[in-house]
Specification:
The chain has 538 residues and is an alpha+beta fold. The chain is built from 10 helices and 27 strands.
Length: 538
């Protein structure tokens, strides 16, 4: 209710408040509506881009997992030796016999006779060294390459304090154990392997209770189990390893030893069922990605169809075309296509997988999948590890090096290198098309060649990364939309401020108008009264 208009009956009779609101809205609301529409459109497209990014990231994660796919399954005929594929490309196994005569063991030490877990051992220092004890009498300790660690304990240190301090050392595990007879023990365990045994040496000024942990001369009195290597025979050939997880006996295969056995047969056979399941998942993911992209870019023609969040968006449309281009190419020296393993493109653009064709092709040639799922990275004159972060085009890259200084470059890209303990040099490639790999060369190497052939998965990941990674086209679009939303939101806030100012000006002007009209009306009333008085006098 306009109180001013109601009280001022001598004014214009207009509802000033209502008139002010109407005039203010007439000027402000069209602009606010236009800005709100722009914000809604930007938020809708940003939501579409977020859905696109989420789908491509999910697809990329699946491609990463697929690159670990092995067309061969490695099996052991006994649980005493478990086998698993770690590098399908390096795998060259058909069948092997592995006997386990002895498992690798840690050294186990037991320091008994303590009254409680918090039994005080006093002050002093304890030096812990890693190495091996000989079988002589008395035994002789040979320290390994690792530097010995000295732990200093303050007055009042307890058995639990010692266990906690030992646990902080690499290769040492310690705990206080309730023996069940009213006493407590300090149990200490090393890593497995002959060379990982422990030796404790107490300083001469240590409290006698702490010095009781010293076995620098002979571990026999506290040793429950000797540290030892695993002893195996590969096809009858004796070998030893420090761990029960053996990673370097069969190329591309990890062996986990759980018990001794006279013979375990390790075989590799085509894993058609597992590969088929993974490939079907790939086809389903590509189809789901294509469907999402189509829905996002739908233009909404026809009364029954609605436009997608990214209707007509050229970036999304080109992303799908680029993916389809990669999927249609041939890879490897033989130009292997998806069609060679039974993956076909239907008329509507979706992929389909013929299980019978896939199984037959993989059974006949398990290596048929290699150019599709694994990049081909080889080197002459160098050892290469790792994979390029973004798969470059197929080609040969030349390493040039000065043996005198170690300075090296790869196709003109300077490399960071350092000399290793064995005299060889290790170089990290941190820029250029081969960014992400490492190269190891002999000290006298002056020239080497690295050959690279991208796989289908590598090429697809590289293409997706070129669009959706930070700084790429998608990120630029998202940044632009967020900037637009922020700017338009500020514009809305500015219009709210302008609306308040405009209304205040209208109120001020109308109030002044009412004052003038009221004054004029008052003067008119006075003149009318005066004239009426004159007329009555006459």
């Amino acid at each position: 209710m306009d109180i001013l208009s109601s009280l001022n009956t001598g004014g214009s009779g207009l509802n000033i408040s209502e008139l002010t609101d109407t005039l203010t809205k007439a000027e402000i609301e069209p602009r606010k509506s236009l800005i709100s529409q722009r914000i809604d459109t930007a938020e809708l497209r940003l939501s579409g881009y977020e859905r696109l990014r989420g789908q491509t990231e999910t697809l990329n994660e699946m491609l990463t997992l697929m690159r670990q796919l092995s067309p061969l399954a490695v099996r052991s005929d006994t649980s005493a030796v478990r086998a698993s594929v770690t590098d399908a490309k390096a795998l060259d196994l058909t069948s092997a016999q592995v006997a386990v005569d002895r498992l690798a063991t840690p050294q186990v030490l037991n320091f008994t006779g303590h009254a409680s877990a918090d039994a005080e051992l006093g002050a002093g220092s304890l030096t812990v060294a890693l190495g091996s004890w000989s079988g002589d009498t008395p035994p002789v300790f040979t320290q390994g390459s690792a530097t010995a660690n000295t732990i200093t304990f303050a007055e009042g240190s307890t058995l639990s304090d010692v266990a906690e301090a030992l646990n902080l050392l690499d290769g040492v595990s310690a705990r206080v154990i309730d023996s069940g007879d009213g006493t407590f023990s300090l149990g200490v365990t090393s890593d497995t392997g002959t060379a990982n045994a422990l030796r404790f040496s107490a300083s001469t000024d240590s409290d006698p209770r702490l010095a009781a942990l010293d076995f620098a001369a002979d571990p026999t009195g506290v040793q429950v189990q000797v540290a030892g290597n695993a002893e195996l025979r590969l096809n009858g050939i004796p070998v030893t390893r420090a761990s029960n997880t053996v990673t370097d006996l069969l190329p591309g295969v990890d062996l986990t030893l759980t018990a001794t056995t006279a013979a375990a047969t390790i075989t590799a056979t085509p894993d058609t069922d597992g590969s088929l399941e993974v490939m079907q998942g790939f086809v389903d993911m590509i189809n789901a990605t294509r469907t999402l992209f189509s829905d996002l870019t739908a233009r909404g023609f026809g009364s029954a169809d609605s436009a997608g969040d990214l209707a007509g968006d050229t970036l999304t449309e080109s992303l799908m075309r680029g993916m389809e281009s990669v999927l249609a190419r041939g890879f490897g020296g033989a130009g292997t296509h998806l069609a060679d393993i039974g993956v076909m493109t239907e008329r509507d653009g979706r992929l389909s997988l013929d299980a019978a064709t896939f199984t037959a092709a993989l059974t006949a040639n398990p290596a048929l999948l290699d150019p599709l799922i694994r990049d081909d990275l080889t080197a002459a004159g160098a050892t290469v590890t790792g994979t390029p972060r973004v798969a470059p085009d197929a080609g040969t890259f030349r390493l040039t090096r000065d043996p005198a200084t170690g300075a090296a470059s790869l196709d003109g890209v300077a490399l960071i290198g350092r000399e290793q303990e064995d005299g060889r040099w290790l170089y990290a490639v941190n820029s250029g098309p081969m960014r992400g790999i490492s190269l190891t060369v002999e000290a006298d190497t002056d020239l080497a060649e690295i050959r690279f052939g991208p796989s289908m998965l590598g090429s697809l990941q590289s293409y997706l990364g070129s669009v959706v990674e930070n700084g790429a086209a998608l990120a630029q679009r998202e940044t632009g939309l967020r900037d637009t939303i922020a700017a338009e939101t500020s514009a809305l806030e500015a219009l709210d401020t302008r609306s308040a100012d405009l209304r205040a000006r209208y109120i001020a002007r109308f109030t002044e108008m009412e004052r003038i009209i009221t004054q004029l009306n008052s003067t008119g009333d006075y003149l009318t009264t005066l004239i009426d008085a004159w007329n009555s006098d006459s």
